[in-house]
């Protein structure tokens, strides 16, 4: 028992936390209008309580199709000079639409704009959209928050492009 108490004290003093690692393994999905898609999100955590999983939608900063058709633009030149910069997705949230798609702890709750649609969080953290719409094109952020995690949430993103 004494060893257990010492171990707990060491964890508190050293700032031990359960930690969470989140990865969206596919960075871009391209689907046809009305087709289903499952946006994958994998996570690892040492927490014993199931985490809260939230998917957030962010509109593109600029249309990636138009950007591809205009390779000589100034933004594309900047992106070529800095491979870590993506002008399609890197802009402030104040300059684009941001909304909650769905959240899951024990059950799935859809965001206001997604009520009535066949959308769910499956396989722990994957976002399943049964029938895509044109307005679904954008950046999707998977956020995982283990209730026991003292260090905060983990997140990653993927892009969805819906073609007509």
From TrEMBL:
Tell me where in this chain the Ig-like domain is found: 35-144
A GO biological process of this protein is: tricellular tight junction assembly
Q: Which UniProt keywords apply?
A: Signal
Any keyword Signal?
yes
Can you quote a single GO CC term? tricellular tight junction
Q: Secretion signal: which residues?
A: 1-19
SUPFAM superfamilies hit by this protein? Immunoglobulin
Recorded hits in PANTHER family, A to Z, give: LIPOLYSIS-STIMULATED LIPOPROTEIN RECEPTOR, TRANSMEMBRANE AND IMMUNOGLOBULIN DOMAIN-CONTAINING PROTEIN
UniProt protein name: Ig-like domain-containing protein
Q: Which organism is it from?
A: Hemibagrus wyckioides
What taxonomic lineage is listed for the species of origin?
Answer: Eukaryota, Metazoa, Chordata, Craniata, Vertebrata
């Amino acid at each position: 028992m004494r060893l257990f108490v010492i171990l707990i004290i060491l964890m508190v003093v050293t700032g031990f936390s359960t930690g969470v690692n989140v990865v969206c393994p596919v960075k871009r999905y391209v689907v046809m209008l009305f087709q289903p898609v499952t946006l994958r999100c994998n996570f690892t955590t040492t927490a014993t309580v199931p985490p809260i999983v939230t998917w957030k939608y962010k509109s593109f900063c600029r249309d990636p199709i138009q950007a591809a058709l205009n390779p000589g633009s100034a933004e594309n030149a900047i992106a070529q000079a800095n491979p870590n910069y993506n002008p399609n997705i890197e802009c402030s949230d104040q300059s684009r639409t941001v909304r909650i798609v769905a959240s899951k702890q024990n059950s799935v709750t859809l965001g206001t704009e997604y009520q009535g649609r066949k959308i769910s969080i499956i396989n722990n953290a994957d976002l399943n959209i049964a029938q895509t719409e044109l307005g679904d094109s954008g950046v999707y952020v998977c956020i995982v928050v283990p209730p026991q995690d003292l260090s905060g949430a983990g997140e990653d993103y993927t892009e969805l492009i819906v073609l007509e």
